[in-house]
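Worked example 2:
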Amino acid sequence: MSLQSVCWFRVCSYRLIAFYCLLLSGCGAAPEAENKPEIWRFAIEEAEGGVQHKYATRFKELIEERSGGEIEVIIYPYGTLGTSTHITEQLNLGVIDFAMASPGSLGKLIPELQVFNLHFVLPVDERLTQRILGDQELIEEFDQLYQPKGLKLLSIFSEGEMVWTTNQEIRSPEDFAGVKFRVMTSPLLLASYDAYGASATPMPYSEVYSGLQLKQIDGQVNPVFAIERQKFHEVTSWMTFPGHASFITTCATNLDFYNALSADRKTLLNQVIRELDEYIFEVQRGFQTERLKSILKDAKRRQRMMHISGDLVRFMESLSKEEHKELIEENEYVEFLPVLSTEEREVFRNASKEARELFLEIGGSRSREFLERLQSAAKTYEE
């Protein structure tokens, strides 16, 4: 089969999948043409209940409300339209109109985006990270890379601090020795954890729980909400908040779709996207707090020790007296360990520079420019 035939087959397949999903979502029996709303299709890289689903759901609410019902937004959770790679391809082809596109998947198409896979680049402080990612000048600069790919970048945001869950305490690269550590299929992430002394192991997200349970891997990294949702804490005993990175994703739209919108529609879309910046920041912070509470409750219920190392001041302050008593004072199955010291973090920071050099080699023609841009912004905000 020729390359042209393969591409045509993919386009037809994606359109059939989208059409089938529309029928399942109840859009097959449309109202009369004059009352039929305009359909906007939005695919996400996570299942229902995650940060991205909250973002897409609020997007749907605001767009439908402020358009007076003239627009209907259909959300496709992860798996509905295939993998993250499939979603990106369908967005490019115009089969869907909006999509979440994380650097882990879109970085293959736009290599400079892999800068968000690097460690110790963005600030530890979540609010500072949000300000950097929400900077319109930065978004416009990255959008220059999206547009040649038929996409338009709308926003960049964090889904929360990345946390290590392992079956042993990790405070130094020496502790990582011999640890089979699951990472996404990214050359930079593989290089980062290899540099930390771990045996970096790519594995599909859907197989991580069983991999930990069967001892095929010894640890993994994700935000707290994902750890709790996927129950990774059930098959690991240590949670470490190293303050090295956040899970970053981007929201994008098809460029032709965006350009075809009326001026009023563009204004509506841009206003909603800007409002969602603050909304999703508070959502992910709330997720981290509520899901960590759930993990502590589960440790007590299952009578299984959980050792936690991290800066949990904000979490502790969020607890009511009753929650503090239940989850902390009377919970013998949770041990709080000291946060990684400045010296301990510095060892990991120095080791992470190997991946930074790799990024400059494989991160595209503007890799150095974007790395320096983020480093400069982080330094400015921290000062």
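Residues 1-9, 22-32 have pLDDT under 50 and may be disordered. Residues 135 and 259 are 22 Å apart (CA to CA).
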